[in-house]
Amino acid sequence: MKNDRKFPLNSRLHDARVERGWSQQNLAEQVGTTPVNISRWENGSTFPSPYFRQRLCEVFGKTPAELGLLPPPPISRIGN
User: Fold this and answer.
1) Is 49 exposed, middle or buried, given 0-12, 13-18 or 19+ CB atoms closer than 10 A?
2) Cα 80 to Cα 22: distance, rounded to the nearest angstrom
3) pTM of the complete model
4) By CB atoms within 10 Å of each CB, which of 2, 19, 31, 68 scores lowest?
């Protein structure tokens, strides 16, 4: 199976959604996106834009850290 993950799995976002009994479709409707995007954010193949990070925090009433929505640190490239 091919691993298209560019970011870590976001179990915090997934768990917050499941705790409320929401499907990916339900959450997508609340934040104004598609269930495909919700799936991609949860499985780490993409990372939500600042707009959607803010919407997710509003919908859940949680901080970005609580939802695993802190952007990954930049990759340091040290030249020779």
Assistant:
1) exposed
2) 50
3) 0.83
4) 2
19 pLDDT higher than 70: yes
Name the phi and psi angles at 74, rounded to 5: -65, 150
Mean pLDDT of 38-63: 96
HSE at residue 26, side-chain half, CA atoms within 13 A, is 11
Q: What is the pLDDT of residue 59?
A: 97
Answer yes or no: are the C-beta atoms of 46 and 8 closer than 8 Å. no
Residue 51: is it exposed, middle or buried by C-beta count within 10 angstroms (0-12/13-18/19+)?
Answer: exposed
Q: How many helices (H) and strands (E) does the chain have?
A: 4, 0
Does the pLDDT of residue 1 top 50, yes or no?
no
Q: What is the largest CA-CA distance in the chain?
A: 52
Average pLDDT of 35-48?
95
